[in-house]
């Protein structure tokens, strides 16, 4: 077996990693701090959208609770990474036993992910039996519950007030490292035994059941992994943005993440990445226009909501004309197969 | 604690919620679509009232009719341009579309009107109370109950006595079969969306009447109420929606009384926990319909 053949299963993830690395290197070279900020948030978004793809793409079930798990991860990670002094400063009502907890960034991040995953594991098993509308409403209910609890549990989350004073640990390259890891995890989950069984049950429930696939357990495992990724993504986001409220993890963010995944293509790992790149770029351009109009003061009441309106229209158009998203069922591949599978540059997807 | 005032308040709250739930279920019954944009119809009604009182000399009743009409037209319009093209594709596509429509309408209001709240002028009757058996009852609450009775009567007659109404009920039971018998799908679905819009419009009058102002995000709360009420009552039955609305009002009022003060603010979380429990253990809700939700395992 030569090298090319051996690297073949890694073609898609390596291609995606190459895309991420090229963007990161270019950003580093350009060195404008605004661009660095945008790209860092984009890589965190890639992690979140990939996490959503892992469950939604493989199981075919719409999940609204994803951003809720992001919120759990963010608040948990911050509780561990902040110094006791900073914690008391931002939330004087904090439970006393939570005050002395203090760990480095990386363990905090992992604990955030684990708590999100644990919560998902504990509550979601019975929910995995539901399909269609019932599944959607329960995941939506889950999002509302997490939001209400974060909003009112003052002694942990600082309630509706802004939680501030988080250290900025998430640099461009930290987000790159985690995005790369997530790409591998999500891609190989899709190709794993669990992923294959889950996709089989998505495509034909009865055929899958007849060959002994336990659909509920497969869905459950995917949901837990997905929640873990969301939790870690939330922690990364929190340590980039450094101050936030429970409203950061609610419907607006849910809409953005869903738009990214659906526009890119929910059934493909590459779709999640491509969708995030395209939507981030579009959003930044639209936001730029919005800010410019606001600076020029054309409208007395300000010019808000333009970005979301355009994004919503694009999303509806995609659903009408290309319901499986830009990528459909395909994955990005380095086109020349006999070449070495560590490409320096990649092709843009068509359409 | 539980006196006449409590009962009338709960009844009026239940009437409002019943109408809300009915508007959501009538579309769900036929399309299996949980319409996330439903709350925004209430917002459209509110902004219509604001614009109409500001720019037209219409009396208040005329303004209210305009609000209902606007909500109905918006509902019909969203069905035509957004839901109809994705209808045949997949349920997930339709659900995401409704989420997108919701965001679109909300931010449209933000863009066109203002992020700030707009005051809506209300007639005198909304601020006055009447004495019944020694307790002061706001006229608004009595009006809600009367409107609900009237609306439900008209709707029941419509659904039982007219051809379209019968077709609508048949479609809710078995849409494929109904279409095979020659009932045009588009007409039935449009009618359902129209009724849904009318319900949201009627609710908007009273919903806005509580705060006397309207904001772009005002639709979120009624949407959540409608979700819970329909799940409690049973997603497939119109009677269930009405029952669910009243049960929701009773539970939420009782929770306000029973729960210790520190937990009252978690009421919504409790309500949605109930939703999850019902969907897992009794997906058909209180009122059983002919077929229940699909589930696996």
Description:
Chain A has 351 residues and is mostly helical. Chain A has a domain at 3-246. Chain A is 69% helix and 0% strand. Chain A contains 15 helices and no strands. Chain A is globular and about 55 Å long. The two termini of chain A are 36 Å apart. Residues 338-351 of chain A have low confidence and may be disordered. By secondary structure, chain B is mainly alpha-helical. Helices cover 73% and strands 4% of the residues of chain B. Chain B has twelve helices and four strands. Chain B is globular, with a radius of gyration of 19 Å. The model of chain B has no long low-confidence stretch (mean pLDDT 88). Chains A and B meet through helix 7, helix 13 and helix 15 of A and helix 3, helix 4, helix 9 and helix 12 of B.
Write the layout of secondary structure elements.
The complex is a heterodimer of chains A (351) and B (297).
Chain A (H helix, E strand, L loop, with lengths): L2 H5 L3 H20 L2 H27 L6 H16 L2 H7 L14 H20 L7 H21 L1 H4 L14 H20 L1 H11 L1 H6 L4 H27 L9 H14 L4 H28 L9 H16 L30
Helix pairs in contact in A: 2-3, 2-9, 3-9, 3-12, 3-13, 3-14, 4-6, 4-7, 4-12, 6-12, 9-10, 10-12, 13-14, 14-15
Chain B lengths: L3 H28 L6 H18 L4 H27 L4 H22 L5 E2 L9 E4 L2 E4 H23 L1 H11 L1 H6 L4 H27 L1 E2 L5 H14 L4 H21 L2 H4 L2 H15 L16
Antiparallel strand pairs in B: 1-4, 2-3
């Amino acid at each position: 077996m030569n090298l090319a053949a051996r690297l073949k299963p890694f073609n898609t993830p390596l291609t995606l990693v190459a895309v991420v690395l090229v963007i990161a290197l270019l950003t580093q070279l350009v060195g404008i701090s605004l661009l660095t900020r945008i790209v860092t948030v984009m890589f965190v978004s890639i992690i979140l959208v990939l996490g959503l793809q892992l469950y939604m793409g493989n199981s075919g079930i719409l999940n609204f609770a994803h951003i809720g798990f992001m919120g759990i991860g963010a608040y948990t990670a911050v509780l561990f990474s902040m110094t006791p002094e900073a914690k008391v400063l931002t939330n004087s009502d904090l439970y006393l036993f939570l005050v002395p907890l203090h760990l480095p960034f990386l363990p905090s991040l992992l604990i955030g992910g684990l708590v999100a995953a644990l919560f998902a594991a504990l509550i979601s098993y019975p929910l995995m039996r539901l399909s269609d509308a019932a599944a959607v409403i329960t995941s939506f209910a889950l999002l509302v519950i997490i939001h209400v609890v974060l909003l009112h549990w003052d002694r942990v989350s600082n309630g509706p007030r802004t939680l501030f004073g988080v250290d900025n640990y998430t640099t461009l390259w930290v987000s790159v490292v985690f995005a790369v890891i997530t790409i591998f995890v999500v891609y190989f989950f899709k190709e794993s035994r669990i992923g294959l069984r889950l996709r089989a049950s998505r495509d034909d429930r009865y055929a899958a059941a007849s060959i002994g696939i336990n659909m509920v357990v497969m869905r459950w495992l995917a949901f837990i992994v997905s929640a873990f990724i969301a939790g870690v993504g939330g922690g990364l986001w929190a340590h980039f943005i450094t101050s936030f409220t429970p409203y950061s993890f609610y419907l607006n963010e849910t809409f953005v993440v869903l738009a990214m995944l659906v526009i890119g293509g929910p059934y493909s790992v590459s779709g999640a990445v491509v969708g995030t790149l395209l939507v981030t770029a579009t959003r930044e351009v639209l936001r730029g226009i919005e800010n410019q109009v606001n600076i020029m003061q054309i409208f007395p009441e300000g010019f808000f909501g333009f970005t979301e309106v355009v994004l919503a229209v694009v999303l509806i158009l995609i659903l009408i004309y290309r319901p499986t998203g830009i990528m459909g069922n395909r994955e990005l591949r380095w086109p020349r197969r006999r070449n070495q599978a560590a490409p320096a540059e990649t092709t843009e997807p068509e359409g | 604690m539980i006196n006449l005032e409590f009962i009338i308040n709960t009844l009026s709250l239940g009437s409002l919620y019943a109408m809300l739930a009915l508007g959501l279920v009538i579309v769900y019954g036929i399309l299996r679509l949980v319409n996330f944009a439903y709350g925004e119809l209430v917002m459209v009604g509110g902004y219509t009232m604001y614009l109409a009182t500001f720019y037209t000399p219409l009396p208040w009743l005329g303004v209210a009719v305009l609000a209902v009409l606007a909500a109905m037209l918006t509902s019909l319009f969203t069905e035509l341009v957004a839901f109809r093209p994705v209808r045949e594709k997949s349920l997930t596509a339709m659900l995401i579309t409704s989420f997108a429509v919701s965001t679109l309408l909300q931010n449209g209001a933000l863009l066109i009107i203002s992020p700030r709240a707009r005051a809506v002028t209300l007639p005198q009757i909304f601020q006055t109370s009447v004495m019944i058996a020694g307790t002061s009852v706001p006229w608004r609450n009595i009006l809600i109950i009367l409107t609900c009775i009237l609306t439900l009567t008209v709707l029941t007659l419509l659904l039982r006595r007219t051809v379209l109404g019968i077709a609508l009920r048949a479609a809710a039971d078995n849409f494929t079969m109904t279409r095979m018998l020659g009932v045009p799908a588009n007409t039935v679905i449009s009618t359902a969306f129209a009724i849904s819009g009318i319900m949201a419009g009627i609710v908007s009058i009273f919903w806005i009447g509580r705060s006397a102002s309207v904001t772009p995000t005002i639709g979120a709360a009624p949407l959540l109420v409608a979700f819970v009420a329909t799940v409690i009552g049973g997603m497939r039955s119109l009677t269930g929606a009405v029952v669910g609305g009243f049960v929701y009002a009773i539970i939420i009022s009782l929770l306000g009384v029973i729960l210790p003060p520190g937990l009252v603010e978690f009421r919504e979380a409790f309500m949605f926990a109930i939703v999850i429990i019902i969907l897992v253990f009794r997906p058909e809700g209180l009122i059983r319909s002919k077929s229940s939700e699909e589930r696996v395992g």
